[in-house]
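Progress against Task 2.4 (sequence-to-structure conversion) is shown through the following example record, which the project officer requested during the mid-term review.
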Amino acid sequence: MMTFVLVIGAGQAGLATGCHLRRSSLDFLIVDSACHVGNSWRKRYESLTLFTPRQFSALPGLPLVGNRELYATREEFADYLQTYATRCGLPVRLNSRVVRLARIGGNAFEATLQNGKRLQATHVVVATGGFQKSVVPPISAKFDAEVVQLNAETYRNIHQIPGGRALVVGDGASGRDIAVELSSRGPTALAAGKPRRLFPERVLGKSVWWWLSKSGVLKAPPNSTMGQFLRRSDAFPDRDRSIGSLTRKNIAIMPRLVDAAGDKAIFSDGSSIPVAAVIWAVGYVDDSSWLGVPEATAADGSFLHTEGVSPVHGLFFVGKPWQRNRTSALIMGVGDDARLIVQRIAAEGSGQTARG
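C-alpha cells generated for the chain above:
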C-alpha cells in the first residue's frame, strides 16, 4: 500500500499538518466533523479573543491580517482558518466525523465515518486539539436541577444565564474572561484554585510574547527545568484579568469549590453562597472513545505519545499541550510540530531516518 496520510481534524493543528503534507509528495486527506472549517472556534463563547497577538497567531505561509499587536476575535480566526484551507488548496472533507479508528493488517488503519463510509490509510495524524471534552466534576450532580449548569464549551453569552448570582469555577484565562463578561449582568463569583501567576501583557513597549519568543523560553522541553516551571505556573498574560482587577469589577473571589447542596456552593474555607448558575471552566480531557487501538491510550483514556509520536507505528499527534514545548498547543507552535511529524512520516515512507 502506497503511503497515504489521514489527518483527523481541520483546526489549526490539522491545517498546519496539511500545509506541510502539501509541500511533500505524500497523498493525504483531512477530515472534520464540522460543516465549515473553523467551526470549533465559532462554537466557543462569543466574547473570546486569542491571547496571543496576531503576529504570533498565524499558520505557516499566511499572515493574520490586522494590527499585529492586538488580538483576533474568535470569528476572525475562524474565517482565517477557512481562508487558509482554501489558499493552500488543502483536501478537506467536512461533515465527516470519525467514530472508529482501528488497525487493519499489520501496517494500515481503517477509519469509520459517522455516515458508515470507511477510509484506509498507512499513517494517521490526530489533530483534534487540546480542548476536546470539558471537565465537569462530580460535584455538579449535587446542585438542584433549577441551577443552570454550563461549561466552557456550552457557554456562549450572558443571555443563557438567569437572574441571580452566577458562579464561574476555574480561574484560567477562559474562566476569568467569562467572569468579567458575566459581571456586567449581575452578581458574579469566581472560584479559584491554586495560586496562579500572570505575566505582564507588555514589557518595554513590546508584547510579552515577543520577549518570551526571543529568549527561547517557549521552546523549553517539558521535562527541562524551565519547562517544568512553566507547566507548574501555567501563566497567561494579564489583560486586565488580575485578581485585583476582577475584584474592582465586583467579582467575588472565592476559594476552591469543594461541595454543593441544592443551590448552595460550598468552598474550602467552609463558606457557602447561593447560586443560580454555574459555569465550569476547570479544563479539558482527551476524547479517545473513538480510538479502537488500545496501545495508543493510557488507562484514563488520554493519548500516549512522545513528542507527537504514538507507540503505535504509523499513528501521530499534532496540537497536544506540551507535545514538544509550551507553544505546542498554541497557534504559533503547531507549524513546527507539524513539520517534524510530516518529516517523520515521509522518512518512514522512503525507509530513511527522520531528522529534526
